[in-house]
Amino acid sequence: MHAWPASDVPALPGKGRDLRIHDTATGGPVTVDPGPVARIYVCGITPYDATHIGHAATYNAFDLVQRVWLDTQRQIQYVQNVTDIDDPLLERAARDGEDWTGLAERETALFREDMTALRMLPPQHYIGAVEAIPGIVPLVERLCESGAAYVLDGDVYFSVEADPHFGEVSGLDAEAMRLLSAERGGDPERPGKKNPLDPMLWMAAREGEPDWDGGSLGRGRPGWHIECVAIALDHLGMGFDVQGGGSDLAFPHHEMGASHAQALTGEYPFAKAYVHAGMVALDGAKMSKSKGNLVFVSTLRRAGVDPAAIRLSLLAHHYRADWEWTDQVLDEAVARLARWRAAVSRPDGPAAQDLVEEVREALSNDLDAPAALAAVDRWAALQESTGGTDEGAPGVVSRTVDALLGVAL
Ligand code: 5CA
Ligand code: ZN
Q: Whose C-alpha in 16, 244, 256, 372 is 20 to 30 A from the C-alpha of 237?
């Protein structure tokens, strides 16, 4: 699939800082030292509805990861998927009497537009689950051959016991895993499974649903976790730097993905750090397509809201925090954007070199975007109250905000 156009990332004076970030698997901060090419996989959307503020907040977090890396002169291999075949997509298409492929294409196109408007850097490889199927089938066949997978009434399951590291990504106990598995697409109650947590790798063809050639597996369609594993292994290989997503992906999705890959390759780990963004809520509940309590990025854009203000709304919250979207959040971002734009519109101002370092320090410290915004606020307040004589300082500020925060002033 094609991704979306990249916005320029200006180079900044001085030297960028290495990223320290919270890793779910170790439960603490790790310093990510990617070498000259940083490798990141971020789980993409299931395109049955438009991009909401929760999605945007999660993609914003991983955009910041890349901006910190780019500031350290690294190249980036960024891979993102689109889950363009899955139960919710088929259910929504059936509800609306629509073709599921048309629905997926339309919502993916809208996602690209939203990401472009928000100035999120595009992945180098943007891969749909459907186009990944020819690569998924041999992986599932290999898992069957090695005894890490088994067949139940034509469906193929992964045996979680095949990976000695199973459970280490999320660190949850068996009961918590069982509850989350039932909530998030698993089938712990299905009789005949070796372990109730075992996730499906390949679902045998069902009447009235699309299916594909599965070689020795028979016709069917892939399970969710193996899709991301196949795409990540194909484009990044084992031991890539960061796997990212919202906190609702830690279990089962990232846990199972790591185990699939580790059982397949005999290598460890799948990703060096598993990074999870908090959940955005609306009216007291997590924003979710299934609940329908959503604020869409495209609706705000259509209402004339500046995408830079949407982005500042996201940046005002630490990526790991759960937070609530309100009109006030957006109003404050609109006001901040106006203050910053006024402050950089003059040819000179207070010295900006400290500010560059403060923003760098804030972001390298577990992506502390609120601290970065506070630093820019202080510079803008000084500009407004006393001004300054440093020629070109406003330009440095504006390039810093652009390069490190993705906001064009
Ligand atoms: N296609 C899968 C990943 S392979 C998927 O989870 N798709 S999604 O459309 O449901 O979500 C896309 C991303 O947005 C995921 O990282 C998910 O964790 C994140 N996300 C979903 N809802 C929220 C929310 N309310 N707040 C923050 N992030 C969210
Ligand atoms: Zn995924």
A: 16
Q: Diameter of the chain by CA atoms?
A: 76
For residue 146, report the phi and psi dihedrals to the nearest 5 degrees.
-85, 0
Listed in sequence order, the DSSP H helices in 158-266 are: 174-183, 224-235, 255-265
Domains by residue range for the chain, with CATH: 305-405 (1.20.120.640)
**What stretch of H or E contains 381?**
helix 369-385
178 C-alpha to ligand 1 centroid (Å): 20
Ligand 1 contact via 82 beta carbon (within 6 Å): no
Q: What is the pLDDT along the chain (409 residues), one digit of tens a residue?
A: 999 999 999 999 999 999 999 999 999 999 998 989 999 999 999 999 999 999 999 999 999 999 999 999 999 999 999 999 999 999 999 999 999 999 999 999 999 999 999 999 999 999 999 999 999 999 999 999 999 999 999 999 999 999 999 999 999 999 999 999 999 999 999 999 999 999 999 999 999 999 999 999 999 999 999 999 999 999 999 999 999 999 999 999 999 999 999 999 999 999 999 999 999 999 899 988 778 889 999 999 999 999 999 999 999 999 999 999 999 999 999 999 999 999 999 999 999 999 999 999 999 999 999 999 999 999 999 999 999 999 999 999 999 999 999 999 9
Q: Is 277 in the pocket of ligand 1 (CB under 6 A)?
A: yes
Any ligand 1 atom below 6 A from CB of 54? yes
pTM of the model: 0.98
Nearest to 203 by CA among 133, 132, 263: 133
